[in-house]
Amino acid sequence: MTSADFYTDRRRFLVGAAAVAASIDVGCGKTEQVVAPAAPRRKNVPLRVLLVGEAEDKDALSRGWQAVSEQAIAIEVLPLVRADSSGLGEALLERSKHADVVIYPLVLVGEASRSDAVVEMTAGEVKRIDMEVGGLLPTARNGAARYGGSTYALPLGCSLPALISQMKIEPPKSWQDYDQLVENQWEGLASEPTAPGWAGTMFLWRCSGVKNWLFERKDLTPLINTKPYVASLELMMRTNSRYTEKGLTPGQIWGLVGDGKLRGGIGFPARRAGVAVDTQLYAIPGVANLSKVVLDPFSPVVSISATCRQTSASRRFVEWLCGGEGSRGVRSQVVGMSDLRAGTSFSGNSAAYDEWLVTQLQVPLIAACPQLDDAMDYLMVLDQQVRRALSGKVASQEALDLVAQKWADLTSASGVEKQIRAWRMSQGMRA
Fold it and tell me: What pTM value is reported for the model?
């Protein structure tokens, strides 16, 4: 994209002593006749961006956009507290009414689209972005750019957990092999993400090979307390008991292995602009021979709000953020964002991880993200009970029985038929 493309939406008009009539863009392709007062130049209306994330990421986005565009920008931050995300879906729907562009977690795409809070992108728009900045990698396209057979959001990051080690190892083929690696070769000097907000996601990553995924399709009966899931949690509990370091995030584990304080573990960098880490990288057990990938439900995506007032500027911002000039440096500074476009060359502190990630994002089949109504509540229930089990407060079966019961209650409260349609759409099917 040329710099001229960013400036074409700037509206300038001549004025004299008397007022003149002007036609201005008032939202999503509509125009309205207004009377412009005499003035030397009309002020640039800021592009309104809602960022569901961390406050410190706001400045990186603002600086990056202002370096390539004269379009003013105003970013509002809706704090994302992964450990307690209750009410985040409702807050997103309300705050998006006052935004042109929304950056938010993947798991909320379903609620946002079904509530008409965001607009569907046409096939032409998606193709144009692909031509300008490169096509999405298969996993990102199928797992984060499609909902109900349509595109309501484009992914900005799809970080996957890597098995990281200070020394070369024989990659474990199963989670049982990994357990033995932790006990014998690493002698417990390892960890996996079990911090609040991360334990449930790590459990889902461990369960990626389970054939019947999360719910019965016909009636949305939870499957989370069936034998394959219980066995996965029991093994997770056993391995967790061997770790010298517990309750960490993926980024913390990435740093500790890089610093030599841990021999290995499971993690990835939170921000690509962090300190360089020299480690060996492998796929987590089961993924190498698996046809499914589980994406982090909190992976960032971007949509155009249904209440946008500057459609052209919003589209340009989305295209730029997905891979336009100067956006790569911005994405490296924002939590969760990464390069997802074909043909990208890597350099810098996270080059090794980014190159590894590209190889992992070639898998076209995805284990669906639970993009249901009240999706955050489903995730929080799972995370809380997994952490209770890891702490020894409850047995694996009891913990997952509680999850299944609370999931069933959430489904009933929202309406079973409604949630069945949402689950089908989460898997790329039409409602």
Answer: 0.88
